[in-house]
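Preliminary data (for renewal application), INI complex.
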Amino acid sequence: MYAVKTIEGQLNAQGLKVAIVASRFNDFVVGRLVDGAIDYLVRHGASADDITVIKVPGAFELPVVCKKIAGQGIYSGIIALGAVIRGSTPHFDVVCAEASKGIAQVSLQALMPIGFGLLTTDNLEQAIERAGAHAGNKGAEAAAAMLETVRVMEQVQHG
Ligand code: INI
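Predicted structure:
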């Protein structure tokens, strides 16, 4: 194979200040995503003192708070967590689309890695599966993605 330069992020969270922005709507599920994200970060070297959980009413409010804190220069990364469940949400598509688009926009505008842990499921059972049951914990996965991206961005900044 060719010897090419490869840049990869190490999954080391030591010294990282992280904000977890989490919706209170469907807190039964989102609380487990928050726990999964914190557990992942601490097991990868973060100090619990460096993790701040910020609660917002619902998924729709995630982007604006992410935007506010992304511009403050305090956090190296953000994890956005929520759960939109179709069964209980007449405006499911609107909430999902606006939350997803908004988070993506903030991430790009602020050049801030945001782990995307917004569950969008047809029913509560599917949400629970993704919040620490059969299908893993999407909060932990969002934390892992944020961490890897933070570490990649540190390296691409310096060539
Ligand atoms: N917010 C959620 O995070 N999940 C949902 O399933 C949900 N439902 O069912 O409507 C939901 N709605 C609230 C929305 O995010 C806003 O908080 C609300 O519209 C006020 O702006």
